[in-house]
Amino acid sequence: MDKRHIRKIEENISFLVKDVDYERLRPELLKQKLFPARHLEVMEERSNTKLELFLAVQRRGPTAFRRLVASLAFSGHDEAVQVLIENEESLLLDSFANTDPFIEQGLDLTDSPIQPNQIVIEPASVLREENNMTYKMTSNPRGMALIIDNEDFENLPPRRGSHIDSDCLAKLYQQLGFWVVMKKNLRKLSLEFELFSFATDTVHHQLDMAIITVLSHGENGSIICTNGEKIAIEDILSKFNNKEAPPLKGKPKFFIFQACRGLKIDPGVETDGPDDVKMGENLEDQQYVSYRLPSTPDIVSLVRDPSYEDMFVSYATIPTYVAYRNNMKGSWFIQCLCKVFMRYSCEEDLVTLLQRVSQELKVYCTTKGEKQINETLLRGVSKKLFFNPGLLNGQIGRSHQNTNQTNYLLKATQREAALERTGLIGLPTMPNFPGHEQLDEIWSGLGSGLELGFEQCAV
Fold it and tell me: Catalytic positions, please?
């Protein structure tokens, strides 16, 4: 356990011993595998079981603090949770935080991109429940989100501006209803350990989804760690397959990689208008061939699932190309993603949201007309994923009901008015660059070059 977490427990041990109901907490300690049952039985034989518990947990390893907080949260010890996570930057648990449109956000986008205190997600008005074409997304919290932000490197240039991305994403995930685990500036061994401990964390059993975000230098197929060592993206994905991450089997896993995938630059092409080919055309030209095992008694039927399922993988750029980041405003891709999710996650599924991100990102360009486009890959995705922000299971009207929606619709209307004041929605349609006066310099990263804080995310 980190020394700061040990100090946090020691400073508040009197309150924890007094506040915690051990009988309520015990089942969660076992679920989170914080202690084996025989260890708890030994502590229960002593005069002050709760004191023994909070002394022993300090010796339970690097993930013990997170599991302790999860155990307290799921057993209803809200005050104890707040005491432990106060001023804790690496673990953010305030699900659905700051979703009240009347909270003062200090919104002003006249000379800056979206900042963390400007993240405001519209709450959904209809709860999309689980069915054969929709993933379950009703747990509270929805899931855990891991953010790995490598900004400072030992032998490579720093990724200035990356902290804006990580802070914005943390607030975005919180308002979508996720607990956020933040890790910064990891060497390869530490990065691999954090991925492993997150993927195998038993808290996922009680949640519906996981988000894994990596912000770093990169090259085609690899992420570069702060000590210069590389980890293959396929190795990262493999840690979350059905075999390696049993707690996440059957649950959606959303990966975001904000990193270069090479050194190529897209100069863009001139266009006279909208694309001629629309999504969904020419599908009938595709040839689909299915194979069926012969139905003979000689074949043994084995019930098995694929190793890779339910993975949404979103890259900031396409293979072999650079991804752009502004030193003072953050990266194009992450800022586009935040903007889209703030406005549309209340009503659209994840794939549609990522398509909107592509639409936003294609408008961005450098002063030389250089472009960037993101890429989304689906592995074993068999359903739609709706975040249902701001809604708890059974709280308001479902997709097949029409009850108690007035208040939430009203809040959405008020939120839209608040967002319009910031210029985040209701913006005029931006024509294609280059050189149009309506192009928003805040979002496009326009400037005269490196002297204004603009750079490629290349190594």
Answer: 217, 260
Instruction: Check the CA dihedral 366-114-436-363 and report its sign.
Output: positive
**Beta pairing, strands 311-315 & 253-258:** parallel
Tokens encoding 48: 């002050």
With CA atoms as reference, report the closest residue to 347 among 381, 393, 385.
385
Q: Average pLDDT across each block of 10 residues of the chain; the chain has 459 residues. List them in order.
A: 86 89 90 88 88 89 85 88 78 49 28 66 89 93 95 93 93 93 95 95 94 95 95 96 94 96 87 42 32 42 75 96 89 94 94 96 86 95 94 54 37 43 38 33 31 43
Q: Which residue has the tokens 């909070």?
A: 54
| pLDDT at residue number 120 | 87
167, 151 Cβ separation under 8 angstroms = no
AA letter at 250: G
Query: Using an 8 Å Cβ cutoff, are 357 and 172 in contact?
Result: no
Phi, psi values for residue 392, rounded to 5°: -110, 155
> Radius of gyration of the chain from Cα atoms?
24
- Residues near 329 by Cβ (< 8 Å), separated by ≥ 6? 112, 113, 161, 164, 335, 442, 445, 453
pLDDT of residue 31: 86
Residue type, 448: S
CB neighbourhood size of 295 (10 A): 6
Beta bridge pairs of residue 127? 398
pLDDT at 188: 95
Q: What pLDDT score does 82 carry? A: 86
The answer to whether the beta carbons of residues 342 and 422 sit under 8 Å apart is: no
d(CA 334, CA 166): 9
Question: How far is Cα 144 from Cα 177, in angstroms, rounded to an integer?
Answer: 9
What is the Cα–Cα distance from 333 to 323, expressed in whole angstroms? 8
Longest dimension (CA), the chain: 80
Closest residue by Cα to residue 365 from 263, 429, 433: 433
For residue 141, whether the previous peptide bond is cis, meaning omega lies within 30 degrees of 0, is yes
Distance, CA of 307 to CA of 172 (rounded, Å)? 30
